[in-house]
Design goal:
The chain is of the alpha/beta class. 47% of the residues lie in helices and 14% in strands.
C-alpha cells in the first residue's frame, strides 16, 4: 500500500486548483500541502517546501511553467513535476520536456489518470497522456544526425522498458542484470540520442518507431 503523497498545485486558476484538490483528497494517500497561483509565488516558498509531486500549469501570468520548472529543478533536483496543460498549448510541450517535467496530463483528464500519473512518477517512472504524446511527436526536435540504428539491441530493449515507465531497478530485475549495468546503458542512450530526460527519450522512441502509442 502506497504511503501518503504530498502534493503541490501551481496554477493561476483558483477554481481549477479547488476542483483538483477536492478530487485528490478523496483518495487515501493524497494530500495537497501547498498551492501557488504563479511561478514566482511557488519559487518563493521552494526552499522550505516539503512536497513529493508538483502539478505545474504551463500558461500562467508572468513566469510560465517551463521557466518555473527549470529554476525549481536547478534548486531542487529531487522534485517530481507533472505538467498540466490544454491542447491549445501544443507548441510549448517541448519546452516542458527540456525543462525536466516527468509527466504530462490534460486538464480534462479523468482522476484515475491523475492518480496513475502520481503512482508512476513516485515509482521512478513517468506518465504521458497519449494525446499529448501524439502532439509532441509531431513537434519535438531531436538531433538530426541521430538514428535509432546507433542503439545496440540491449539499449533498445532498455529504452522500451523506460517507455513502459519502469525504474532502473525494475528494468534490472526484469532483464536479470545489475542496476549499475542499466544505469550505464541508460547514460549511453541519453548521450547517443541527445535526449535530456525520460520525457524526451519517450518522444525519441515514438518518433523512431521503437514504441507505439
Amino acid at each position: 500500500m502506497r504511503s501518503e503523497y504530498r502534493i503541490t498545485l501551481v496554477d493561476d486558476h483558483s477554481l481549477f486548483r479547488n476542483g483538483l484538490r477536492g478530487l485528490l483528497e478523496h483518495y487515501t494517500g493524497c494530500r495537497v500541502v501547498h498551492e501557488a497561483s504563479g511561478g514566482e509565488e511557488f519559487l518563493a516558498t521552494l526552499d522550505t517546501l516539503e512536497t513529493d509531486i508538483v502539478f505545474m500549469d504551463f500558461a500562467m501570468p508572468g513566469m510560465d511553467g517551463a521557466r518555473t520548472t527549470e529554476l525549481a529543478l536547478a534548486r531542487r533536483p529531487d522534485l517530481r513535476i507533472i505538467t498540466l496543460s490544454m491542447f491549445g498549448e501544443e507548441s510549448y510541450y517541448s519546452r516542458m520536456v527540456q525543462a525536466g517535467a516527468r509527466g504530462f496530463l490534460l486538464k480534462d483528464s479523468d482522476i484515475e489518470d491523475v492518480i496513475e500519473a502520481i503512482d508512476s512518477v513516485m515509482a521512478g517512472g513517468s506518465y504521458f497522456s497519449p494525446q499529448l504524446l501524439s502532439s509532441l511527436t509531431g513537434r519535438m526536435r531531436t538531433r538530426e544526425n541521430i538514428s535509432d540504428e546507433q542503439l545496440s539491441e540491449r539499449e533498445r530493449e532498455i529504452l522500451i522498458a523506460v517507455c513502459r515507465g519502469l525504474s532502473n531497478q525494475e528494468i534490472a530485475d526484469e532483464l536479470f542484470i545489475s542496476k549499475r549495468t542499466v544505469d550505464k546503458h541508460r547514460a549511453n542512450i541519453l548521450e547517443k540520442t541527445g535526449c535530456k530526460n525520460t520525457a524526451s527519450l519517450v518522444v525519441f522512441a515514438i518518433r523512431n518507431g521503437i514504441v507505439e502509442i
